Amino acid sequence: MAGQTDRLLTRAQERFAVQDYYGAVHLLEEIVAGGRAFADVHHLLGVSLSLLGHGERALDEFAKALELNPRYLEALIHQGVVLNELGREREADESFHRAAASVAPPSTGLPAHVAARLANLHSELAEAYAEGGSADRAIEQYGRALELGPSFHDLRYRMARLLLESGRPLEAREALEHVLAARPNFVDAEAALGLAHYLSGDAIGARQVWKRCLERRPENARVEAYLAMLGRAGT
Question: What would be the CATH architecture of the domain defined by 169-235?
Answer without folding.
Answer: Alpha Horseshoe (1.25)
